[in-house]
Specification:
This protein has about 500 residues and is of the alpha/beta class. It has 14 helices and 14 strands. About 45% of the residues lie in helices and about 20% in strands. Strands 1-2-3-5-4 form a five-stranded mixed beta barrel. Strands 7-6-8-9-10 form a five-stranded parallel beta sheet, with helices on both faces. Strands 11-12-13-14 form a four-stranded antiparallel beta sheet, with no helix packed on it. Strand 9, helix 8 and strand 10 form a beta-alpha-beta unit. The chain is flat and about 170 Å long.
Length: about 500
């Protein structure tokens, strides 16, 4: 027999695949530990994007992987927090992918009062750090509310105690919003009731409460835990209506006591703090009314005394009128006399002024004489000035005639111009065979410049060739332009 056959014949145990072994272990573990409760400390809580919660349960020696499926997380009374000691309920199972076992958690409870107190203190510090417990946020409780809202269980003894005490003290309208005050859904219901009251309109079908009372009877720390939840505390802090907290007995303290505007030791005390005692209010009003009447009486008495004292100093109105009439008569007599004197003085002054006045004809004759003298002087001055200006004009005309170019032509000079009449000053400006005009003292002749002529030994050019005789009218002496009137004449014109 070969060696391989000997090994096969000696191995009697059946073999399993890894998957078969994992399923067998899973079945054994889940069957043996279908329901387990473990006390441990939570470590590394993590919520996956899928909604599942993953965390670790540990004690001083061992650790256990834990998972809470998405469908179960909403039913947890306590959410996993780092370092929180809890009692976790669930079942054991295995995770074949990593060859490990884990607990599938279905319920989490706080393990002991110490853990609850630690969680409570941590939450209190966090909310206090946000300013939710600041004294500046507190609102005053109205002294005479007309409507009170109560958030509590509608079937417990608390609501009966509150209604009875309110009835004994003062008649007010009470609105009750029934909620759970213990258990998993209690916190959400209480927060919804607070926000519901706060959202009521001012002029709605139901009156908006002037103050809220959140009440519950006494119990253990776990029983009052709903009033320590963050959602309830924030609802109380954000409420615009003044809130009175009345949770448990005087020794019980919850987080809403810090956020509320006023804390009552008991629910009954909350009703006493919300409204005054009817008899006490009546007695107070009676006392205030008595003080008001006494003060009014004293005020009237003092006013009467002051009036009597003032009346002693008053005179008889008739006598006062007579004296005023006499004074008026004296004043009118003085007024008339003063008016007569004033009129007499004004009449005398007018007479003096009238004597100094002259007839208008005399004034007009004097003015006409002065105007005639002024006219004569003006005519003399104008004639003299005109003669002087004419003499100046004649002298200037003679000077212009003596300096004119015609007098230069009389001395034997000529004026050469081009066909347009512009003077030709230099030979370079006259091209060959150009037609030019030559003006003499007695007339003008046309000529053509000779291009072939050469200069004589004396440096004089050959004469130009005459081409026409435009006429003797060109030789006539131009009339001199009239001279401009001197500036002195302008000044003479201004006299008129």
């Amino acid at each position: 027999m070969e060696e391989g056959d000997q090994q096969n014949s000696g191995d009697n145990a059946p073999y399993l695949t890894i998957s078969e072994l994992s399923r067998a272990v899973k079945t054994t573990v889940e069957t043996a530990f279908e329901f387990v409760r473990v006390r441990a400390e939570i470590s590394r809580p993590n919520k996956a994007p899928s909604g599942h919660l993953y965390f670790t349960l540990k004690d001083d020696r061992s650790t256990l992987a834990a998972v809470c499926w998405k469908t179960m997380t909403a039913n947890l009374a306590v959410q996993p927090e780092e370092g929180l000691e809890v009692i976790a309920t669930g079942r054991l199972t295995t995770f074949a992918g990593q060859s490990k076992y884990q607990i599938v958690v279905s319920q989490i409870e706080i393990a002991g009062e110490g853990a609850l107190l630690k969680q409570l203190e941590d939450r209190r510090r966090m909310l206090a750090g946000e300013g939710l417990f600041d004294q500046e946020r507190k609102k005053k409780i109205p002294k005479m509310p007309t409507t009170i809202g109560v958030v509590t269980s509608p079937t417990g003894a608390v609501i009966r105690d509150i209604l009875h005490r309110l009835q004994d003290r003062f008649g007010v309208h009470v609105l009750v919003w029934g909620t759970l005050v213990q258990g998993r859904d209690a916190a959400a219901q209480v927060a919804a009731a607070i926000r519901g009251f706060d959202a009521m309109p001012e002029n709605g079908s139901l009156p908006r409460p002037d103050v809220l009372i959140i009440a519950r009877g006494g119990g253990a720390l776990e029983d009052l835990w709903a009033f320590n939840e963050e959602v309830v505390v924030r609802a109380v802090a954000e409420c615009r209506i003044p809130v009175i907290s009345a949770i448990g007995h005087e020794t019980d303290t919850t987080l809403i006591d810090f956020a509320a505007d006023l804390r009552a030791p008991t629910p009954t005390a909350a009703a006493e703090l919300a409204v005054p005692v009817k008899t006490d209010l009546a007695a107070y009003l009676s006392e205030v009314n008595a003080r008001l009447m006494r003060a009014t009486a004293r005020k009237l008495e003092n006013a009467g005394q002051q009036t009597a004292l003032a009346a002693r100093g008053l005179v008889d109105p008739a006598d006062l009128i007579q004296r005023r009439a006499q004074s008026l008569d004296y004043a009118l007599g003085g007024l008339f006399r003063g008016l007569d004197q004033w009129l007499s003085a004004r009449a005398l002054r007018l007479s003096g002024l009238a004597g100094r006045l002259q007839p208008p004809e005399t004034k007009l004759a004097e003015a006409a004489g002065r105007l005639s003298q002024i006219g004569q002087r003006f005519e003399q001055q104008f004639a003299t000035s005109l003669a002087n200006r004419q003499q100046k004009i004649d002298n200037i005309a003679k000077l212009l005639d003596a300096n004119s170019f015609e007098r230069v032509l009389d001395r034997g000079f000529t004026l050469v111009t081009d066909a347009a009449g512009a003077p030709i000053k230099r030979a370079a400006a006259a091209p060959d065979q150009a037609n030019v005009m030559i003006r003499f003292a007695d007339g003008t002749r046309g000529a053509v410049l000779n291009a072939n002529a050469s200069a004589s030994a004396g440096g004089m050019a050959q004469p130009v060739k005459a081409i026409s005789n435009p006429g003797s009218n060109r030789g006539s002496k131009p009339k001199p332009k009239p001279a401009r009137k001197p500036a002195d004449d302008d000044r003479q014109d201004k006299l008129f």
